[in-house]
Amino acid sequence: MTALLEVEGLVKHFVAGRSLFGRATAFVKAVDGVSFTVEAGRTLALVGESGCGKSTVSRLVLRLIEPDAGSVRFEGRDLLALDANALRHFRRDAQIIFQDPYASLNPRMTVNQILTEPLALHDLVPAPRRRERVEELLRLVGLEPRFARRYPHEFSGGQRQRIAIARALAVEPKLIICDEPVSALDVSIRSQILNLLRDLQSRLGLAYIFVSHDLAVVKHIADRVAVMNLGVVVETADAQALFAAPRHPYSRALLSAIPVPKPQAKRSRIVLQGEMPSALDPPSGCRFHTRCPYVVERCRSEVPQLVADDTGHATACHRTAELPPPDSIVPSDGGFTPVLEKLVAAFSGGAEAPDRTGVNIAGT
Predict the structure, then answer these.
(1) What is the distance between the terminal CA atoms of the chain, rounded to a whole angstrom?
(2) Which of 53, 264, 319, 320 lies 20 to 30 Å (CA to CA) from residue 206?
(3) Please, are residues 162 and 196 in contact by the beta-carbon 8 Å criterion?
């Protein structure tokens, strides 16, 4: 399958200090050579600890932040070579949903104005039809058309996130970047938003880049996972393969931290020692070697390359073949908490999820 998005060697260093004469003297190496692909209609999840560069990558892909090096190709086009006019046209094809919907929605605009703005900017719908289009978008995300007259502060968190999703859908994109879209929501509302995103993907053929540190959510929605640590990708694989048998020590530590709703279950808990290194001065060699329980001298001096096997499972570790099998690290149920697991099932396949709107989410 041809990739919709191809990212190769993406680099972004932020200036963190300057000399008396204005010369940069310190850099935060937020993203340092990230590569991945996203296929049409599929979901790639970027996971890792806070500060590993996930959100920065998402903004670099959309050129909300300009990269220092690397390439980003969308449907074969080099996005970094686009001028201002061509970049504006690209915005139709790629949108972003932010973590905090209240902060990303203009509090001085009604929902109608928020959803009409992208239609007017891209001249997608004639002015007489824009109100009708706004009503269609609201129904698509499970909200009633009468809400178009309200302001963002009049909605719950879940409803505001639906409005943010509707705004992203207004320009009929092919790719949506979801930057932790459910982390600020209650567990019951998370399941509704996740099911909404999955339903929209199947109906509209959308591709997602899903940024999250919640691995239970990632397992529920992702087709493929890229694990990041200190600005670099250390492992990529199909979601099912990664959760069944993680290979990189960092991936194993992350997955072993998933809560298990079975107190008697036998599993290995990997507790990382020490503090996460600073992106101002990342360790030499493998960036995980200061906390890795399997470190050897080679790890401290030589940077491991991200090497894929025949199945497409790629790992950046010198000792991948030597590590013990990851038995009992990941629970068979994927680590869903009982509440989230039951709610995801309940709100799939026709159950009502009103979220104070009185609308059947699964049926929209």
Answers:
(1) 29
(2) 53
(3) yes
Closest CA to 299 of 285, 309, 312: 285
Residues 95 and 86: beta-carbon distance below 8 Å: no
Q: Token pair for residue 125?
A: 């719908």
Residue position matching structure tokens 């502060």: 153
Question: Are the CB atoms for 198 and 204 separated by under 8 Å?
Answer: no
Structure tokens at 268: 């290995």
Phi, then psi, of 204 in degrees rounded to 5: -110, -5
Task: Output the DSSP codes for 239-289.
Answer: HHHHHHS--SHHHHHHHHTS--S-TT---------SPPPPTTSPPSSSTTT
Query: pLDDT for 35-76, tens place per residue?
Result: 999 999 999 999 998 889 999 999 999 999 999 999 999 999
CATH code assigned to 3-226: 3.40.50.300
**Residues 60/67, Cβ–Cβ less than 8 Å:** yes
What mean pLDDT, rounded, does the chain reach? 86
pLDDT classification of 359: cutoffs 50, 70, 90: very low
pTM assigned to the model: 0.85
Q: What is the pLDDT of residue 265?
A: 63
Contacts of 328 (CB under 8 A, 6+ apart): 266, 267, 268
The DSSP element (H or E) to which 12 belongs, if any, is strand 3-18
- 146 dihedral zone (left: phi>0; alpha: psi -120 to 50; beta): alpha
List, in sequence order, every residue forming a beta bridge with 208; answer none if it has no partner: 43, 176
Q: What is the pLDDT of residue 326?
A: 76
Integer angstrom CA distances of residue 140 from 170, 271, 352, 357, 361: 10, 44, 15, 13, 9
Q: In the numeric block, which tokens belong to residue 153?
A: 């502060």
* Rounded distance between C-alpha atoms, residue 42 and residue 213, angstroms: 19
Domain ranges (residues) in the chain: 3-226
Separation of alpha carbons 130 and 176, rounded Å:
22
* Burial annotation 202-236 (CB, 10 A radius, 16+ → b, else e): eeeebbbbbbbbbbbbbbbbbbbbbbbbbbbbbbb
